[in-house]
């Protein structure tokens, strides 16, 4: 793929991740999806290859690649299946990058290094049974008692809840202070009073692990506070700038898969004595998929480029996520239509793409939230203020230093 | 110990059917190219030998700049360095000419204890480069190798895959070994290695560097030339439904059809 965002390293990475998805994910995915099973063997291989620290500096155990590489990994994993892109979203983008951005040197050594090496799996626990888009409405409490905070509350719809070793948990330290009363904590599995479980019966992303977490008087050492007390909302939102980027990139992979499989099917399936690819109404759907793929690619990797430069990209990432996830859902719908009755069965992949694509227009900011965000930016009602700690720009020398 | 892996860049097997005979004859296939799949097993074995016995594994290929992609894939898998052999004079070399260039490349690099390569390429399908290289170097040749049992200072013991089974043979080093896919499962490159390989500068050795004159290599020196290339005719398929009241009647009619109409039994 010749494109001005990508260099030789990116091209090699894209080919390797595509091969990985083709050889490790696609042959198993129909069964994993049907059984609602998360495959730890695939996760293990991802860890060994460096997926889990793709854009983390080498000195923190990562591969030392840039944020564009994070996008490519997300795109080509979700070309295989949404489940493993979701792993990257929570482990790398929402958790590890938040530690890279906000953590102390000690926290990076303790939490980030084993995560980047794939020795520990990490996730992000913000959403609650009664608080999704309304982040300031979370009810989990953290009360300081001497050297520890005591956590009580419940988290819901947490990707990798039953798989992760490390949890980035958001809780209220000052319930009267609205979003300024939220703080972020690094919590390890096994903490007293902490339980996790898996949610079954999802429409899509069934090979991913999604679950709940309960904290009952769970003590968390004060040194595990990420950032400052009351800074949790900003940490959560800045992490979403990275999480949404990987969701958008993954959605681009869904569009790519829909396009490739629709083209192959349309050329091979005949009706009325000729390949259905000859019919203009089929061509229209294929043309729209190509258009969506091109637009999503531009939006996603532009956001990745901004991250590399260290330029704030909340708006650009939001529009990329909003557009790409809607475009993936529309493309999967069109792909099923092209496949006809076969597309309606799980003999082909496209029905899975539709089920998977629906989740991403809901999580990490619903399309409605992104619509309002874009309007607020355009109307001048919303402006991004500088953060106390910004996501560090990609510096090749700094990222590849191994000491 | 030093191991040199000879590899080729070939069209992606998924794209092979798209190539026309005209494109193949012109040497311009116009499709995505990757490392010859058979050679991936050789690269993997070269890396495993280094891991078992220590030493250095070098990837080597003859070809224009685009071949760097396959060489960088070998580096990303774990080869220590790569060498590309290219000169316009090499263009149009047949198997024998290619083997000569590769043998000279190996000598120029200081020789090797074990030279590895895949059993054949998926485009040319000759499967004779290993033979040519062993001949030019005057060393042992082991083909169809499915397992390297042991390497000592002086010998290599391997299992060769035969139609009827396996045989174990010992040969003196140095040796040229061509491998089959049963030998291993090629590893995925790690991301750190991809990053490093993508930045690698791969040295290129020309005909002059290798001490070869233009008359010895390339199209003019080729002993075998392609004069024609054809794709097999597309297979004809038809469906015949054998009707009958009972399974016995259907079976009898099917037998009659196969013996007397199609004459296949």
Structure commentary:
The complex is a heterodimer of chains A (403) and B (265). Chain A is of the alpha+beta class. Chain A folds into 3 domains: 8-121, Acyl-CoA dehydrogenase/oxidase, N-terminal domain (Butyryl-Coa Dehydrogenase, subunit A, domain 1); 123-230, Butyryl-CoA Dehydrogenase, subunit A, domain 2, CATH 2.40.110; 233-383 and 390-400, Butyryl-CoA Dehydrogenase, subunit A, domain 3, CATH 1.20.140. Chain A has helices spanning 8-35, 40-49, 67-78, 82-102, 105-116, 232-268, 280-309, 314-343, 350-360, 367-379, 396-400; strands spanning 122-125, 141-145, 148-159, 166-172, 182-188, 194-198, 210-221, 225-226, 270-271, 274-275. In chain A, strands 1-4-5-8 form a 4-stranded mixed beta sheet. In chain A, strands 2-3-7-6 form a 4-stranded antiparallel beta sheet, covered by helices on one side. Chain A has a two-stranded antiparallel sheet with strand order 9-10. In chain A, helix 3 packs across helix 6, helix 6 (232-268) runs antiparallel to helix 7 and helix 8 packs antiparallel against helix 9. Chain A is globular and about 80 Å long. Chain B has 265 residues and is of the alpha/beta class. Chain B folds into 2 domains: 2-221, HUPs (Rossmann fold); 235-265. Chain B contains 8 helices and 11 strands. Chain B has helices spanning 21-26, 37-53, 68-77, 95-108, 129-137, 191-198, 218-221, 247-261; strands at 2-6, 9-11, 33-35, 56-62, 81-85, 114-118, 140-151, 155-162, 165-172, 175-179, 204-205. In chain B, the strands form 2 sheets. Chain B has a 9-stranded mixed beta sheet with strand order 9-8-7-10-6-1-4-5-11. A two-stranded antiparallel ribbon of chain B has the order 2-3. In chain B, helix 3 (68-77) runs antiparallel to helix 6 and helix 4 crosses helix 5 (129-137). The longest helix of chain B has 17 residues, at 37-53. Chain B is globular and about 75 Å long. The mean pLDDT of chain B is 91. The A-B interface holds A 7-9, 12-13, 15-16, 19-20, 45, 48-51, 53-54, 58, 63-65, 69, 400 and B 34, 72-73, 76, 188-192, 194-195, 197-199.
């Amino acid at each position: 793929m010749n494109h001005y965002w990508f260099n030789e390293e990116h091209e090699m990475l894209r080919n390797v991740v595509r091969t990985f998805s083709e050889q490790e994910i696609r042959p198993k995915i129909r069964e994993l999806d049907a059984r609602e099973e998360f495959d730890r063997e695939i996760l293990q291989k991802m860890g060994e290859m460096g997926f889990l620290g793709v854009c983390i500096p080498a000195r923190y155990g990562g591969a030392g690649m840039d944020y564009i590489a994070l996008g490519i990994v997300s795109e080509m994993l979700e070309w295989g299946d949404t489940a493993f892109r979701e792993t990257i979203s929570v482990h790398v983008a929402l958790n590890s990058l938040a530690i890279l951005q906000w953590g102390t040197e000690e926290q990076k050594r303790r939490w980030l290094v084993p995560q980047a090496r794939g020795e520990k799996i990490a996730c992000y626990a913000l959403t609650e049974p009664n608080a999704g888009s309304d982040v300031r409405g979370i009810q989990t409490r953290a009360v300081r008692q001497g050297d520890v905070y005591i956590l009580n509350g419940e988290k819901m719809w947490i990707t990798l809840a039953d798989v992760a070793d490390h949890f980035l948990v958001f809780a209220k330290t000052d319930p009267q202070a609205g979003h300024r009363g939220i703080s972020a904590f690094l919590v390890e599995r096994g903490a007293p009073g902490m339980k996790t479980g898996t949610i079954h019966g999802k429409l899509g992303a069934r090979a991913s692990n999604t679950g709940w977490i309960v904290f009952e008087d769970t003590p968390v050492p004060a040194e595990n506070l990420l950032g400052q007390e009351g800074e949790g909302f900003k940490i959560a939102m800045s992490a979403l700038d990275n999480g949404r980027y990987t969701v958008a990139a993954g959605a681009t992979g869904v569009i790519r898969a829909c396009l490739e499989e629709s083209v192959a099917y349309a050329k091979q399936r005949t009706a009325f004595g000729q390949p259905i690819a000859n019919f203009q109404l089929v061509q229209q759907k294929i043309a729209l998929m190509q258009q969506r793929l091109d637009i999503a690619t531009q939006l996603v990797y532009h956001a990745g480029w901004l991250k590399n430069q260290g330029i704030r990209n909340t708006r650009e990432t939001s529009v990329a996520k909003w557009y790409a996830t809607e475009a993936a859902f529309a493309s999967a719908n069109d792909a099923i239509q092209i496949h006809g009755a076969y597309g309606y069965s799980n003999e082909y992949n496209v029905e899975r793409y539709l089920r998977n694509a629906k989740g991403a227009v809901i999580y990490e900011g619903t399309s409605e939230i992104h619509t309002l965000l874009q309007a607020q930016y355009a109307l001048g009602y919303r402006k991004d203020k500088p953060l106390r700690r910004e996501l560090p720009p990609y510096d090749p020398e700094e990222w590849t230093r191994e000491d | 110990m030093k191991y040199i892996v000879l590899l080729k860049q070939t069209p992606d097997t998924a794209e092979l059917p798209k190539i026309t005979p005209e494109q193949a004859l012109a040497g311009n296939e116009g499709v995505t190219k990757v490392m010859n799949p058979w050679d991936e097993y050789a690269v993997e074995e070269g890396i495993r030998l280094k891991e078992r016995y220590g030493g250095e594994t070098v990837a080597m290929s003859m070809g224009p700049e685009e071949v760097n992609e396959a060489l960088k894939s070998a580096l990303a898998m774990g080869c220590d360095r790569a060498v590309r052999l290219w000169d316009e004079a090499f263009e149009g070399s047949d198997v024998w000419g290619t083997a000569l260039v590769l043998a000279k490349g190996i000598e120029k690099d200081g020789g090797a204890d074990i030279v590895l390569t895949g059993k054949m390429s998926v485009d040319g399908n000759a499967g004779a480069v290993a033979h040519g290289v062993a001949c030019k170097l005057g060393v042992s040749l082991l083909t169809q190798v499915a397992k390297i049992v042991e390497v000592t200072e002086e010998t290599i013991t391997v299992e060769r895959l035969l139609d009827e089974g396996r045989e174990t043979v010992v040969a003196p080093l140095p040796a040229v070994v061509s491998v089959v896919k049963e030998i291993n499962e090629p590893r995925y490159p790690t991301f750190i290695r991809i990053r490093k390989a993508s930045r690698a500068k791969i040295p290129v050795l020309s005909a002059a560097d290798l001490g070869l004159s233009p008359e010895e290599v390339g199209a003019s020196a080729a002993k075998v030339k392609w004069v024609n290339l054809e794709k097999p005719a597309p297979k004809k398929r038809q469906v015949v439904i054998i009707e009958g009241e009972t399974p016995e009647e259907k079976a009898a009619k099917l037998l009659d059809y196969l013996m007397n109409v199609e004459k296949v039994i």
